[in-house]
Design goal:
globular, binds zinc ion, 3-stranded antiparallel sheet
Length: 120
């Protein structure tokens, strides 16, 4: 498992081998969060809450970066972003579901520029 940062990324749970989203829940004094990469509907979120699992909004854009923001109880009725729950072993998504970065073809052929902007 890699060191969590504010920007969410996929990783593998060291305990059960499931895919997890790893991020800090805040840019200042953030707490490391591991969440299941499975979007929850309202009944599933309620079930997760009853089980004692925190839920998070997955905000941002896949290209520019995403972050996990805790869903506080006062705002839990609003669903403007995908909602995910804190990971509990065993997770619902196997690590083999994570696409490997090497599978993505290079658009420009020059990987030394460090340019992360997609060509479209
Ligand atoms: Zn696990």
């Amino acid at each position: 498992m890699r060191t969590p940062r504010v920007r969410a990324r996929l990783d593998v749970c060291a305990s059960c081998g499931s895919a997890v989203i790893v991020a800090l829940d805040s840019a200042v004094a953030g707490i490391p969060v591991r969440a299941d990469p499975l979007t929850l509907d309202e009944p599933s979120e309620l079930r997760a809450r009853v089980e004692g699992r925190m839920t998070y909004n997955l905000v941002g854009h896949p290209v520019s970066g995403r972050a996990l923001v805790e869903r506080i109880p006062e705002l839990v009725v609003h669903r403007r972003h995908p909602v995910v729950a804190a990971h509990r072993c065993p997770g619902p998504v196997p690590a083999t579901a994570i696409p490997q970065p090497m599978d993505i073809p290079s658009a420009g052929g020059d990987s030394s520029s460090g340019d992360d902007i997609p060509p479209f």
